[in-house]
Amino acid sequence: MAVLVSGEGTNLQAIIDSIDSGYLRETEIDCVVSDRENIGAIERARRRSIPVIIVNRSNMLSILSPIFQKVDLVVLAGFLKILPSELVKLKPVINIHPSLLPLFGGKGMYGLKVHEEVIRSGMKVSGCTIHLVTEDVDGGPIIAQKCVTVESTDNPESLQQKIHPLEHQLLVETIKNFGEKKFVINNKKLIFI
Ligand code: GRF
Questions:
Q1: Best mutation site among 3, 6, 11 for ligand 1, i.e. most ligand atoms within 8 A of its Cβ?
Q2: pTM for this one?
Q3: Buried b (16+ CB within 10 A) or exposed e, 117-152
Q4: Averaged pLDDT score across all residues of the chain
């Protein structure tokens, strides 16, 4: 698979650790793609000798098309750029989002902003979602979710800290389920088996 990142890369690390521990079998990260230099995710990839490719908005399509052709799955693990629709159509692309979609998603909803809005809303549960990426930002079919309780003492930072480890679990479980064909992605539609 290819893993696309823009930040600290703890979700990338969870995938690497699951491959190394044998939880994810017959799985390899062909490359890590980033739209930023000097981020934790790149450091994590290099430490594991995974090739790193840096892209920007203008060269994304030409650089990523041949890469997407080669892999079975593309994972957006905190990637902040919107992928051109030509790329999204090429292969199954999944994204991890730190809220219970369809709530608190869409353009501009990333990082602490998501958790600030959850606290502001008064909701008593939040969580994370893995969904299929379509042209609709954060709007593709939902593959899996995990929930946490929002306590009255929570603030955006504490909520983020609660949800982050759940993201790691949900992401590796979903990649495993994909590899074991517990669901298949056909023409941007999900079929659970
Ligand atoms: C995660 O919260 C993920 O849900 C969101 O971006 C963040 C990436 O975190 N899409 P990390 O770089 O994997 O630590």
A1: 11
A2: 0.97
A3: bbbeeeeeebbbbbbbbbeebbebeebbbbebebee
A4: 97
